[in-house]
Every structure is written in C-alpha cells, then in structure tokens.
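Database export, one record per block. Field names are fixed; values are copied verbatim from the stored entry.
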Amino acid sequence: MKKIKFVLAGLITLTLFSGCLQVATKVNLNQDGSGTIEETVLMKTEFINMMREFIAAFDSSKTEEFNMFNEDRLKSRVSDFGEGVKYVSGESFSTDGYEGFKALYSFTDINNIKLNPSPENKVPFGEDATESEDTIVNNDFIKFKFSKGNPALLEVDFPKPEDNGSSDMEDTSEYEDSTFQNQELEKITDMFNGLKISAIINFNNNIDETDASFVEGNTVTLLEVDFTELIKNKEVMKNLEKKKPESMEEFKEVVGDAKGIKIEFKDKITVKF
C-alpha cells in the first residue's frame, strides 16, 4: 500500500460517515523511552443517534444502546499499539455536536510501539470491531527506534511506499466537463466535511535537535489533517479529485502548503531530547 493510502487509510471504507469522525493520537515520551498514548475518537452525535435507531429497528436482540465508549473494547485494543502496552483509563467525552471517548495507555519501551492514526477500526460497530490488527497491513504503521542517552535519540519511521514503476500522476479527461467536476467536488466536500486526523509526539524533556518539519515547543506533529479547512480550498480539492495522487510526493505536489494539512513527508525523522 502506498504511503498516501496510509495517510488517508479508511476514508474509502468509511465513506458513509468519514466526515463524522475526528481522531487524535498523542504520544507523551519520557527520556527513558517510556510514556503514554492518549487517543481521542469523536463522531457526530446526529450520526450516532441514527446508528442507535438503525440498530434498534433491525436488531431487536440488542439489549444495550450503541455507544462510542466501550471500556472492554478499549482494554482489548492494547495489542493494536504493540507489545507491553497497558490500558490505564478511559472515559466518555463529548464536545460541539460530537461524542466519543478518550483513552489512555502506558508503555515502557517505545521501541515496541506502532501507531496507525487513521480512522479505521476506531469505531465499535458490531462484533467485528475487535478484529483490528488482522485488517491492517504491517507496513502501514508508524514505528520507532529509541536509544537512551543524554540526550536520548528517537527515530520515527514512516510507512514506505510501494514502487509500482511509475510516478506520474494521471490526468484523466473525464473531468474536463466543468458541470461534472463541480458535482464530484460537492460530493467530496460533503463526504469529508468535519473529518480530522492528527498524530503528535510530546517530549517530556526539551528537544535539543530535530529534522522534523513541524515542531512547536516540545511537540512534533507527524500528521494533522483538518478537512473542514482543506475543502475550503476549491482548487486543491479539484486537483486531488483530478490527479488522484498515489504517493506522498504526488500528494505534496497537489496540496502544497494548503491550510488545514500538515504531513511529515520524510521517510524518517530524528529527535534528540
């Protein structure tokens, strides 16, 4: 799977409600390589209510109302983050027409941690909700290599794109018709409106040196996509639909420095702290 598909993983399979989701992943890292993972997952309340009505109408055997917060499921997902991860706490959370949950996990060695910040497998739909890792290609994870010291060194490895022998973006002629193009743009705008994904690392010690692209204080942003902002840029959205980029370089060429998006395009970054 190409890296751009990693960044936008789940958007196709979650087409019906992708714009309803907001997923934020935050890693808090200590100088000895231990730390915590904070995950916040929100969905529009109106969609959750629709799901509740749907489940009640078509599955009378369900005795519990559908809720985003399911502590048993959160506890069972520790392996999704790698080895040696422990569930610390979780709580129901709501804000501005959205509701969901916050979960906190702990780890002792970030070398064993892997992250997949995409929306897929974050929502507890039915019994299949626990089947998370089996549906994710191993190369789709952000991974880490940590070395103790003063300063300590963290390397962040991003998924490698597959080489399909071509790096040229397709420029199909079917979008030359402006009416058709505008209709497609409206569909995409409705689909992605409200969708937010982010993954950041907060270093509990001062950052001494880094080649990361997005740094603020002791925080490094690995990924931050706010489609509510991005879709305001009609030219970028048209180019995304028209070019259909299949690599990070192609995606970077299309979006440039558009507001609402921060993506680390390097295959690897290092942080001394």
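Remark 1: The helical segments are 3-7, 45-58, 71-76, 178-192, 227-230, 234-243, 248-255.
Remark 2: Residues 3-272 form one domain.
End of record.
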